[in-house]
Amino acid sequence: MSDKEGRLVIADLRGGRNAVDPPWLIKDNEVADAVNVDYWHSRFGHKRGGTTAIATTFSAGGPFTGRIYNLFRYVPAAGALSAELWASDNASPPVWGRSVAGAQFVAPTLKDAGTNGTTPNTATTINNNLFVAYVSAVARMHCWDGSTVRRTGLAATGAPTVANTGSGSYAATLRYYRMRSTVQAAGVTLLRSEPSASVSITPSGSGAAARVTKATAINEGETHWEVEASTDNVTFYRIATVPIATATYDDSAVVTSYNLSPLSALTGVYTLQKPYKFVAADQNRFLGFGSNTSTDKQARLEMSAVIGSSDIGDAERVDTTTNYYIDFDEADGGLATGLAGPIYGTFFVFKQRQMWQLIATGNTDQPYQQKKISGSVGAIHQLACAIGEDENGNPALYFMSYRGPYRWTIDKGLQYIGRGIEDIILDQTTSGIHWTSDIVSRAVYYADKRQAWFWISTGVGDLRCNQMFIYDVIGGGWSRVPKSIGPARMSAVVMYAHANDTVNYVETLKPFIARSVNVGLLAECDDSTTDVDTGDFQAYVTTKAYEPGGPGFYGSTGTPTLLAAAASGVTITDTVVADFGLQTTGASAVLTATAAGETRVMRQMNGTAGDGGIAGNVGFVQHQIGDASALPAAWTLDRLIVPFAKNQGTSR
Amino acid sequence: MIRDPHDKDRLFRQYVRFAADGSVASVHEYEASAPAPADAVEVTDLGRQDFHALKVTPELVEKLHADVRGESDVKADLTAALAEALQG
Lengths: 652, 88
Fold this sequence. Notes:
The complex is a heterodimer. Chain A is built from one helix and 52 strands.
């Protein structure tokens, strides 16, 4: 083929996918489609990694009998080397497992079994405990304390009973008794309940003491009970602490000495936490939003006591004697959907159609000032929010809303970032987001590659996420993973350490997903060249429609030249499409290095698939470049140079 | 002294009372300025401990209960016995 007059250089496609605007009108750094690629260490396109199955066998308890619906990473105080992967499935009751530092799963002991495995759980770590918000038959918050997933706080008992005991001359003076349950370790009180109702007695005057008998145990791990006494049924004093195994306490003290004992805490200081739907930790406070009890306020955020304020179950109690909650338009703006943060010292509260910012005040009487960021944009779910960074490294919050993906940063505020994938997410005909899905959307931030990964569920009958999108933070471009392929079809995701990590790489976190169509199948993403369950996959980018002759003129193109990272045995195919499908021709090149040490290869694409030339008069030309079909190849492309020539005008 | 987290302006001393078998029946805190109860032994200086798990000899407890004025040396003996039990 004769030489052409010009050279089209396609080198920077980091603007990513834009399938919304006409393919000839998109920016030069955008592409009409980017499938199974990302922009990691490449401005043109890098084939995404595959997925590898992670063993989910149990050494005790289990196995998973349903599809895994919830994944959490729990880092105890011992540090990242002891990080645990938590998973639960959608069996009835759900099967839970925890894997410590890559070991086999062990079923944790649950005080209260879950009753709904399909409801997404949220979790957070605070004060070395993993707080998990899940649905159980007991309307309480739960936490893992290293040995049991137990209820947080301690419930109040019924009232104790009291009677005369012994013989003597114990004064016949009216007094009141009540009790609290506590958990002690080495003499230090760690948890305390609210007081029981009180009971009164006027001793006979001929007894030795008033015998207080504790109420029925609450069976929440309590080790002791406290006897509180009062002369007026208003002001109570803690007159004794008794082991839980001892059922009675004999009070032989004169009532005038009660006030020598510590004053009882105000009623309300040890209020139990609700079965919150969404949980998060903000510095030394535990935050709970919404409730699995339908009669509770659903748009209420409750705050725990500040850790360190008494060191008695601070993260597990709500002090209702002070400002402990904030309501967010209870009946407006849709359902509560989550908490996210902190970013620059602020937290975010989401409803379906609202976004609120919580600004810490530093004042314990009014811990937060709330500010409504948007009355129309909210997040789909807390698990569809991900904290990451923007292109400059500043903290950023990424989330999927009912109107596509958004980002919030301190300097730019709320930003819509979903233009390039609107054709899929906001498709209003058949394949847009399926709002009634079990799992509508999920998101994680893949820090090592500076990518935000989003999933959505599309189409009737797809009950879990089945489409995936990768947002390249540095370039601001999108790529996608097609419906149901590999990591696209999932029911849960978490960032967790690489399965083969040694000590040195324990902080290298990768997305781990649960494949939603397979029982108990976990997979590590970005870890091979094929996908678990669905096998090899095809990756490619489809360029914008270039006009080789320029607007108003026909043109022709020649054999492209490809610059790419050397990859032994990998064939890259360029399908050249002229005039939006009117003509198609192929081109290919093999990326095998010619000499040892050659890191990049420049290849004319005149291989077995053809030479890619379009000799006739064409108006527009697009290049779909990458795998010809589903292949187990890994590649990184740098640049494509296409010779072109201007021919006659399209009209005279 | 012990400072109650809910009442930080008040200081307390800690005492234990014994069951007849020598086990610790209950733990108490009384204002630091209050006189020591006759039938209880102060354990403030032993620090926060799980006193309920400790046991002394019934004979010492019997002596304590017999000494209604609380003036004998048995209290010191009991405190020493508790300290020894803590170490043991």
